[in-house]
Amino acid sequence: MKKDFGIKSLLFSILIYSCFATAQLKADDTHYKNMLIGERAATMGGTYVAISDDSTGCYYNPAGIAYAVGDSLSGSGNVLHKMKTVYSETIGTEDWVRESETLVPNYFGVLKKYKSYSFCFSYVVPEAFIEHQDLVFDSPLSTVKKYYQSLHSEDITYLIGPSGAVRIGDSFSIGLTLYYHYRSFMRQQHYFLEETDGSYEVFYESKKQREDGVMPKIGMQWSPWSLLTVGMALDQTFLINAPSQGDLSYHNTDNKTDTASLFTTMNRTKSEVKRKLPTHLAFGVAYFPTPSQLYTVDIDYYQAQEKGRANIMNYSGGTEYYLNPTNAVRFGLFTNYTNLPDTDSSTVAPYEYIDILGASLGYTSYSSSSSITLGAIYTYGSGKAWLYSGSTTSRNMKRDSLTLLFSASSSL
Amino acid sequence: MNLFSKHLWFYIFIISFVFASFGNAQEFRLRAHHLFWKNQEANTEREIDFGRGVSAKILGKYPILRDEGTVRYINQIGTGISAQLGRPELRYYFGILDTDEINAFAAPGGYIFVTRGALILMSNEAQLAGVLAHELAHVDQKHIVRKLKLQSTDRSVTSGIAQVLGGATLSAKIALERLNDLAFKMLMEEGLSKEDEADADQKALEMLTSLGYDPQSYLDYLQSLKPYLEQGQAKVLSKTHPTIIFRYNNLREFIMKNDLENFKGKKNEKRFRNKIATL
Question: What pLDDT digit, counting tens, does each position of A247-271 carry?
C-alpha cells in the first residue's frame, strides 16, 4: 500500500513498516500446533488421538472419552508461554527481535459418564499471542536520526462446546465434538521517524477483527487387540463471519522539498473476508505394554482449503512412565511444520518459512481422587524470512519458545 | 453414490459392530494410579468386611450395652477424635460392652468397643478420650491387618490372604472364618506387639493434646489399671497389653520430650460423670 506513495524519502519507513506488516499477521497462522492442550496430552507432545480417555479427549479425539475411567473435572493453564523470534540484520545491521508472552488458562473440561455413553463440555484456547514492543533506534541509517516504534498485538482463539461418545462393544467407540470457534484479534501500531534534515513521518494504525464459526470434530477409536488402540479424528472449522476494520493515518514533511505537509492520509477500511481453514485428519496409535508404560504416535494431516497454503503433515510421539503408582513422568516430541508452500527464487515478501520442532516433559502426582501436573514445552526452529515488501531478498530467522504449564484434575 | 449416501449411517453402524466384535476389552488402559487406588479401595472394603466379622465374634462373647444416652456420648467423643485420623474412607462405630471386665478393643475397619468396667474405672472425659484414641490409632495404623498380613503390600498383585478375603468360594469363606478366629484370639488373648501398643499410646497422646485434653489423665488411667494387674485379676485382660509400667514410662518420656509437662488440658470431669451415671 505504502509503495503507492512513490516517494523516495519514505524508503526507510516503508522498509520498517513492511517489516511489521509481517508482524500484523495472526498469532501464527502458518503453523497449526503452536499450543499443546491438556495435562497428559501436552506433556506427551500433543500425542493423544489414540488415548484421549479423559476430558482432554474432547479436543484431541472425542471417541476416547468413552473410555474415561470416571467422571472428572480438569483444567490447565500455561504458567508462562514465551516466544522469541529473531530476524538477522533486519534494521540496518541490527537484528529485529520479536517477543510475545502470554499467561492463559488454556483448557477446562468436565466429563460425565452414563453407562456406555460419555458426555463432556470443554473450553480450549488453541492459539494465544500477545505481543508488545517499544523500540527506539538512534541513527539506524545515515539519513535517519531517530526511529521510534510501538506495537501492541493480541490474537486469541477460543473453542467451547459439548462432546459425546459411545462405546460400541468393548473395543470400538465413536464420538463427536461441536465447538463454537471465536477469535479476537487486535493490533495497534505507531511509529515516528525523524530524518537528519529534520523531515519526519508519523504513522498510526489500528486493526481489529473477530471470527465466529463452528468446528465439528468426529472421532473413532478401536482396539484391534489387547494393549493396542488406534484412533482417528477429523475436523474442519467453518467460519460464519469474520468482520474486520482497519484505521490508518499517516503524515510526513520533507525539508528537502520544503513541503510542510508532503502527504497526509486518514483511512478506514472494512472487510468481511473469511479465512478458509484446513481440513484436519489425525491418526494415532497407542501401545500400553504395562500399567506403568505407554507409547504413542500421531500423524496430523492438514489439507489446505485456500490458496497460498500447502498440505502438510505433522508427526508426534510420546511416552508415559510411572515411577510408582502415584508419580508419573512423560516425554514427547513433535513437529510443527509451516503450512506455506516451498520457497524458490521468486518468493517475495512478506513470507516466513520456518519449520519448528518441539519437546515436552511433564510430571504428575496422583492422589486417590485428583492429580497435579507440571510440565515444560520447548520448541525451536530456524528458517528464512522475506521481510521487505516486494523484495525477494531473504534473511535468516530463528524462533524458540518455552511454555511452563500447570494442570489439575479431580474425579467427581 | 446416492444409494451409498442414503445408507451411510447403516453402513457405519454395521462396520462399527464388525469392529466391535473383534478386539478386546480395554482394561489395559487403566494406568498404575488407577490400579493402585482401586486396589486400595478393595483392600479397605475387605478390611471393613473382616472387621465386621471380628466384631461379631466380640459381640458373641460380650453383650452390647443398650444405653442410648451413654452410647451417643461415646460416639460423639470418638467421632471427634477420629476426625484427626488420616482415613476418611472409614466410618467409625463405637459401642459399650456390657461386662465388668476392664478393656477396650479395636476391630479392623473402624469398630471400637470399650467395656462398661473400663468406663466405671475412668474418672474423666480425658481418660475416655485417651482410651478411644488409643484404639482408633490401632485401626488407623492397621495394626491387626498388618500383623495378620491381610493386606497386600504389592500394588498390583494382591497377596494370597487378601484374595481369600475377597473370595466368594466355600474354601475362601472357611479361610476368612479362620482369620476371624485368629484376630479374635489376638484381641482377647495374645494382644498386639509391644511396639504397636507403644505406637498407639503415643498417637493417642498426640490426638489428646491437639484436641485440648489433659494428657496426664490418660497416664493416670493407665496407673489406675496397675492394682488390678498386680492382683492378677482375670477381669483385666492383661495379656493383651504390655506392662503398664512400660507404657507409662514410654508416655512419660514422650511428654518430657515434647515439653508437655505443664500442659493443662480439659478433663470435663463433671460432664463425664453425668453421662455415665446410668452405668
Answer: 999 888 877 776 666 667 788 999 9
How much is the mean pLDDT over chain B?
Answer: 82
CB A389 within 8 A of CB A349: yes
Q: Counting one residue from A and one from B, how many pairs have CB atoms under 8 Å apart?
A: 81
By Cβ distance, the residue of B16, B26, B32 closest to A325 is: B32
> Maximum Cα–Cα distance for chain B, whole Å?
100
Alpha helices in A36-190 (DSSP H): 40-43, 57-60
Which amino acid belongs to residue B28? F
User: Residue A326 and residue B36: Cβ atoms within 8 Å?
Assistant: yes
Q: Whose CA is closest to B128, among B195, B235, B242, B220? A: B220
Q: Does B24 touch chain A (CB under 8 A)?
A: yes
B25 and chain A in contact, CB less than 8 A: yes
The DSSP 8-state label assigned to residue B236 in this structure reads B
Q: Tell which of A71, A116, A292 to mutate to test the B interface (max B CBs under 10 Å).
A: A292
d(CA B148, CA B51): 12
A406 touches chain B (CB under 8 A): no
Rounding to the nearest 10 degrees, give the CA dihedral for residues B31, B36, B41, B45.
120
- Half-sphere exposure for B211 (CA within 13 Å, toward CB): 26
pLDDT tens track for B214-253: 999 999 999 998 887 666 554 444 455 557 888 888 899 9
